[in-house]
Structure formats: C-alpha cells, structure tokens
Amino acid sequence: MNLIFSIVVVLLLILVPLIGVGVLGLTSLFSIYIPYLAFSIFFFGLIYRIIDWARSPQPFKIPTTCGQQKSLPWIKHSRLESPASSWEVYLRMFFEVFLFRSLFRNLRADFDGKRLIYGSAKWLWLGAILFHVSFLIILLRHLRFFVYPVPEWIKILDFVDSFFQIGLPPIYLTDLLILAGLTFLFLRRLIDPKVNYLTHASDYFPLLLIIGIATTGVLMRLFFKPDIYAIKELAHGLATFNPTLPKGKISLLFYIHFFLVCTLAAYFPFSKLVHMVGVFFSPTRNMANDNRMRRHVNPWDYPVKYTTYCEWQEKFRDVMEEAGIPIDEDWCKEAQKQA
Amino acid sequence: MSKLPKPDELLKDLNLHKTPSKHWMDIKPDFRPGTYCYAVEPQVMEDLGRPHLGKWQPHDEKWPLPEDWKERILKAIRDRMERYRSFRLFMDICVRCGACADKCHYFLGTGDPKNMPVLRAELIRSIIKGEFSFFGKLFGRFAGARPLTEEVIKEWYYYFYQCTECRRCSVFCPYGIDTAEVTIIMREVLHELGIAIDWAMKPVRFSHFIGNHIGLQPHTIKENIEFLLGDIAEITGLNIEVPINKKGAEILFVTPSADFFADPGIYTFMGYVLLFHHIGLDYTISTYASEGGNFGFFNSMELAKKLHAKIYEEAKRLKVKWILGGECGHMWRVWHQYHNTWFGPVDFLEVPKSPITGTVFEHAKDNKIVHICEFTADLIAHGKLKLDPSRNDHIIVTFHDSCNTSRAMGIFEEPRFILKHVCNNFVEMPENTIREKTFCCGSGSGLNTDEYMEIRMRGGFPRANAVQYVHNKYGVNTVACICAIDRAVLPTLMNYWVPGVEIAGVHELVGNALVMEGEKERTTDLRYRPLLGKEEEV
User: Fold this and answer.
1) pLDDT at A76
2) Considering only CA atoms, which of A179, A182, A176 is closest in space to residue A161?
3) Taking CA atoms, which of A35, A235, B235, B477 is between 20 and 30 Å from B450?
4) In a domain, A299, yes or no
5) A58 vs chain B: nearest CA distance in angstroms?
6) How far is CA A203 from its chain centroid?
7) Are the C-beta atoms of residues B421 and B392 closer than 8 Å to each other?
8) Is the residue at A302 inside a domain?
9) Radius of gyration (Cα) for chain A, nearest Å?
C-alpha cells in the first residue's frame, strides 16, 4: 500500500509538467514561478527549522560515549568516541557527518543454533555513502549550468567524474553510483522484513522522487539531449535573479527533471530529509564528555523541594540517639536562622 | 504471578526475521502476565504529591483516565518539545534506516517489532505528526501519523516500560538518536496523568522520606554495617570501624544502598571497607545521603533531582573535601551527566585529590565527584596496594560493562585495569557484546520486579548468551560488574540461562586480594568460599 501510494504520487508529479508544459504551454510557470517558489520554501523552511532547533534549549549534556573517557593521565582516552574538548568534538562530528562513522559500526544479529552471533553489516553504510557522496558531487557539477564562466574546480570535478570515458558523451561515474546506491536503499526497504515493516510511504516517496530525478537526468545526458544552451540561459537567469525564458525550445524531459527537483526542494524542510541539517544538532554526538570537568547550565532549571537534613534528623532523632549516631544541632540552628 | 517457561521453551518461537501481517498501528499490546509491570499504588503518588489514577491495573480493559487526559498529555508533549532540543530533534530527523532494529536486547529476546528502537520512537513520533502536523493529519498513515487514543496510552505504558534506557541503539544510530532520552521523556509524560509502575515508584518514596530505596533507617544501616564488619573480622581477623556521619572527614563515600544489605552487594561493600582501611582513608558514609542510586531518574527528572539533592547538602554539612561514589550504573549516569547541571556550581568542595597518591582528579575538577574505580586504579598504578591476586584463583572472571557507565560515562579501562591486578584469570566476552556495545542485564531502569520475569529473562538473553559462550569455552564462573542493579538481577538471569555463574562487584575481588596489615592467613574469600588450596583448612 505504502509503496503503491508513493509510486502513484511520483507518477502524478511527472504528469504535472507533462500537462502543464506539454499541453497547456505554461512554460514560464514551470521554468520561473514554481522554481522560485520551491526554492524559497526550501531556503526559508530550512532556516526556520535551524532557528527552531537552535533556539530550543538542550538542558543536559548527554553525549553517547562510545569509547574510554578522559580520566587518569596514564589511561589513553578515545578522542573520537569520547571527546573531552571542543576540537575532539569537531573531529567526532566530522567523521559522523562526512563518513557516517556510527553507521559503519553496524552489526547484524542472528541465531546460530542457540547462540546469538553478530556479523559485520556494512552494506547499509556503503549504500548510504554511495548515494550521499554521489548526490553531493552531482549537485556541485550542476553549478556549471548556473555560473558563467564555469570555475576551474567544477571543470576538474566534471573531468574526474567522467574519467573512465565510457560511452559518448562519457557517462558520469556518480550517475551510476547514485543509481546503485538508491537501488540498494530502495530494495532493502522491500526485501528486509524488519525494514519493510517500519517503512512508511513517506520513506519510499523521497527515494522514488530522487530515483526519478536521477533517471531523467541520465536520460537527458545520454539519450535525449536537450538544448544545453537554452537550459544554461534559463539557469543563469534564475541564478542571477534576472529570469528570462530562453529563445531555444527546451524538451519536456527537462521540465519533468526540473519539476521533480523543485518538488524535492519544497518537500525537504518538512520531511525526514532535514536530517541533513539536524545531524549537526544531535546532542548525543555534538557535546563533549567533560561533564565533571565543565559545568553545563540548564536555562530552565528550577529548584525542587527535597527532604533536608534537619527534617530527616527530626524524624529519626530517637533511633539515631539510641544507635549512637551523632546529632547535629548546629547545622539545624544555622539552617533555621537562614530560613 | 505467571509461570515462567523453561529456558528451552522461552525462545522457541522467536524469529528475528518474521514480522506480523498486520500494520503495527493495528496491533494492541497484550497485557499478558510476566510481560508488564504493576501500576503504582495510589498512596505512593499521594505521599509524593503527584497525580494518580486511583486503584487500577494495566490489564484492566478500561483505564480510569481523567476526563481531560488528552489535553494534559498533548500539553505535556508540547512542553517537552519546547524544553528538550534532544526530544524535538529526535522526533524530526529519524529516517527509519533500521540500523537500530536488531540492537535492542528486548527485540533480540522477544522479536516484537515494537521493540525495535525506531518503532519504539515511532509510538510517539506518530502522535506528534498526527496531532500537531497539518500534513500528518492530511496523509495519516502514509506519513506515519495517527491520532492519540486511549489505546495509544496503553501501548506507551507497555513499551516505554519495556526499554531499559540502555542507549545501545544510540551507539549505532547515524544521527545519535537516543531512545533512552525518548523513554525518559515519555515516562515523564505518562506521569502527568499519574501513570507509573509500582516497582520504580516505591523506592522513590522511601528514598525521599527515609533516604534510600529500601527504606533502611539510620540505625538499621549501622547495624547492617556492623554485621558485615563482624564477617570481615571472622575472615581476616581484623577489627575495622566504618565512620558514620563523621563531620570533618576528608571524603564522603556514597554507594547504592543495596550494598549495605543485599547479597551479593554486601561483599562489594566489604571490599570497599577493606580498601579504605588498607590505605587509612579519612572518609565517612552518611545515613542521610545513604543512596547513590536514583529511581527518581526512572520516573521524572524532577524526582531524580529531588532525591540526590541530599548528597550535596550532606557534603556541605559534614564539611568534606570531595565525594567518592561506589559501583553503580544508573547512579553514575546521573552523577556524571546530570549532577553538575542540577547542583553546581559545587564551590563548597575542593578539587578531588587522592590523599594517598597525590593525584589530582582533573577530570572531576568541577563537580568534585570521583568513581571508586578511578580512585582504586590510581592507587594500583602508584603501587599503593598490596595485592595477592592468587586469592581469586578459585574463580575465572569476565567483566560485564554496565549500560550507563559505558555509554553515558565511558569508564572501560579502569575496572579492567583493576581486575587484571586482582585476579589471575580474566577473560573477555565476545567483542560485540562488551564495552560500548555491551548488553543490558534486561532489568534496568526500574524494571527489576518479579512480575516482569518473562520479559527480564528475554531481555537479558543476549547478555546471558555471551556469558554462556565464555562459560563453555573458558570455564568462566564469575561475572564482575560495577552496577548494583546488575548485582541484584544478574544472579537471577544466570540461574535461568547459565547456572553455575556468580556475580561479583569489582571491589569484592579487590577485597579478596588485598593483603591487609595484621590480618590472619585467609582461608576463605569474602563469601566464606574456600580459597584454592585451602579447601581442607576450612
């Protein structure tokens, strides 16, 4: 059900520009107004989310310690897994955000007869890395459409990415890798019963959406080449806030690709995709394990009523005297005076 | 109470790769005896000035929820979302990748998909979407959203009291989503209606009014200690005194109260006492701050703070220089990650410095509390202890890392360093079951009650299974640990899964090994078991 729902939604999304541009000829709507709207939602939505998280207080310092704490000088502490200083925290975050370190730890538990065994399970990590890194490189590569002249580093990126010179025009390595990663992540949700059980339609949807974007992109690159100059003209106009409809005719395939990208951008801030930014705020990862060294202040801390020593002593005075446990009159007199 | 199935039968139908045919939102929890904890007695809540539902039990078809239950719950959730970035963020960013799914000991022992940490969090995430989000309301189940109903409250009770806040899932989560944090907050939310479990709340009442979880009054603590000192005298020939509420002592020593009276915690206590005597430490214990553990933490943050405020008042009153804490798991989570925030700045104490070695405990310079294993490891490293590890030759030891000290503190090397110096036979369990990947005892976070035995044995299974492995392979007969709840519940778990394995605190083994000045030749360990080669003399 969840899967069918997501497929239907993505197909409908493909239909929108097909009808909008192909039948109704609303070219400026799909090349100017919708993109601006979508990217405004993306931009302001994300800023809203960031401010929202940043403003909410983190009352306690709760790092998950995955390694030896810093304690006695002769015990080597784990800088990455139990960071005790800011730069160690940055290091931990770097490995977490760019290399998915926690995911790299992944294990698979299973029964071997009556014994529970744990095997290494790095496939999820590999699939995730392939997808995310490729996505990032593809995004950067796309800058060549928006800026003119194209900076040298993008040209180099482009060159390296098509280094293997397979086909003509050469296939981008990242195009293959992102599709491989996406396919793995998608199949995993279908095949692994546990993951399948916990998957919502809202988990299939972004995967399918991105698969749609990547596929239309690859199709344009390899088989149905659109008018690149017209697209550059459009992209450059959009990027410089001077949007113009290009003179050349742009293919429908491009409008599908572009509309799906706009959908992804607009959907982003309100979905689980915000993990991209949220991960930076994760208190179990971005706080130092230095609780006893440096005090963390809770902005909404409030005093609580507890049983004071004097109340307690009054209650047990008799048994304490009998047992020869010292009674402290001075402290209670002092406390009374202060009250 | 229900009858617990035999070990062979308990996991017979367990299949980690089979999921129910129904959607999880359509499955109601089955309040089957042995799988849930009893509800709190109303008088307990009354005494503490907390709301309650009167007399009821979770298996009741209709729960006596107050008329405005829904508003109160939603308000409580909103309030937590405003006050905890952690909670808000964890609700927002989960991508349901499933990396956590088979990391939970309860999932591994029950196969129940709602014990996958991701689904445990979905139990509340779905409500936040379904009640607060426009798109959630619009798309419903497709977006993973659902409305709040009385059935959901029951489900929360069932599953947020089927999580021991062990944080194992948070080690593996790519975003560090911590189910413990979610469980802590959701238990607090349920508390707003007065929904709580009896086993976790009675100790709170005792601790608040009397000073410790079991309600030991000051004279009883003293008597118990004297009784243990009698045993020490018999075993070592030494007459030792334990200072009680001594003003002006250098160090206040606080340990979980179970160490005063419960087997096998008492042997750990005897170990502490021998150690302190051995080095001539100027310390005191307190009958007012007589609880290091904190069951308040298993109910709400406010209760937790309430219980431990005593420790700092006592340190101030007794004019000690710093505080030394005994072996305990959740106690150290609270001491390490919360105390300094709640009770700081602790400017009335001094930066902890070992009076024996002169080591300044820089890592505890602000909060002024030191873990006994840090303290002892430092003593051993400086050669200040006279040890005879052969006195532990009758045992083969492995070390169980407690969840809290592992994943909310990171104390891994200190206890191992100590063990390697006090025993000759130390082996590790398989690497994916120790240190930060350690498994919970299955009974933590206030769930160590008898009526919950089936789930405890299931949840403790992964831990027991790893012990079984080293028991078969190396003949391990003792699991050392640094947690009072472990000491209370692992014996039951071992009897069930791996009979013949005993549980000991690290300092019990220290106590065995310490060569004390003026002692007679020992023939038994602190449990009156004959030492290797001394069987005939006993």
Assistant:
1) 96
2) A176
3) B477
4) no
5) 5
6) 14
7) no
8) no
9) 29
Q: What percent of chain B has pLDDT over 90?
A: 97
| Same domain (yes/no): A174, A319 | no
Same domain, A94 and A189: yes
**Two tokens, residue B250:** 């250098």
Whole-number Å distance between alpha carbons of A335 and B16: 59
Q: Which residues of B touch A309 (CB under 8 A)?
A: 288, 310, 313-314, 317
C-alpha triplet B338, B344, B346: angle, nearest 5°: 125
CA–CA distance, B337 with A58 (Å, rounded to integer): 13
User: Has residue A42 been placed in a domain?
Assistant: yes
Confirm if B171 and A105 have CB atoms less than 8 A apart.
Answer: yes
Say what the pLDDT of residue B87 is: 97
Q: Is the domain of A253 the same as that of A319?
A: no
Tokens 């420790």: give the residue.
B311
Cβ density class B277-291: b for 16+ within 10 Å, e for less: bbbebebbbbbbbbb
Q: Where are the alpha helices (DSSP H) in A143-295?
A: 143-146, 152-161, 173-191, 193-198, 201-222, 228-239, 252-267, 275-278
Which chain A residue is nearest to residue B141, measuring alpha carbons? A200
Closest CA to B15 of A191, A193, A107: A193
Inter-chain contacts counted by CB atoms under 8 A, chains A and B: 311
Q: Same domain, yes or no, for A260 and A316?
A: no
A241 touches chain B (CB under 8 A): no
A46 part of contact set with chain B, CB < 8 Å: no
Please compute the mean of the pLDDT values over residues B383-408 and round it to a whole number.
97
What is the pTM (predicted TM-score) of this model? Answer: 0.95
CA distance A139 to B294: 51
Domain extent listing, chain B? 19-196, 205-513
Q: Is the pLDDT of residue B1 over 60?
A: no
Please say which residue of A261, A281, A301 terminates a domain: A281
- A contacts of B362 (beta carbons < 8 Å): 73, 293
CB-based contacts of B296, cutoff 8 Å, min separation 6: B204, B207, B302, B303, B304, B305, B306, B307, B308
Per-state percent for chain B, helix, strand, coil, to nearest 5:
50, 5, 45
AA letter at B349: L
Rounded to whole angstroms, how far apart are CA atoms B504 and B342? 32
Q: pLDDT tens digits for B110-125?
A: 999 999 999 999 999 9
Work out the angle at residue B411's Cα, subtended by the Cα atoms of residues A100 and B93, and round it to the nearest 5 degrees.
30
Mean pLDDT value across residues B297-316 = 97
- Asked whether the beta carbons of B503 and B486 are under 8 A apart, the reply is yes
The one-character DSSP state at B505 is E
Among B244, B254, B124, B241, residue whose Cα is nearest residue B179: B124
Q: Which amino acid is at B325?
A: G
Please report the residues numbered 374 through 403 in chain B whose beta carbons come closer than 8 angstroms to any beta carbon of chain A: 374, 377-378, 381
Q: Are residues A116 and A227 in the same domain?
A: yes
Residue at a domain's end among A244, A266, A281: A281
- Cβ distance B85 to A58 less than 8 Å, yes or no, reads yes
Q: Are the C-beta atoms of residues B249 and B318 closer than 8 Å to each other? A: yes
Nearest-by-CA chain B residue for A275:
B93
Indicate which CATH number applies to the domain containing A192.
1.20.950.20
Q: What is the ipTM metric for this complex?
A: 0.94
Domain count, chain A: 2
The better pLDDT of the pair B177, A149 is held by B177
**pLDDT per residue as tens digits for the range A73-86:** 999 999 999 999 99
Domain that holds residue A123: 2-281
How is residue B113 annotated by DSSP?
G
Q: Hey, what's the torsion of the CAs at A33, A35, A37, A40, to 10 degrees?
A: -140
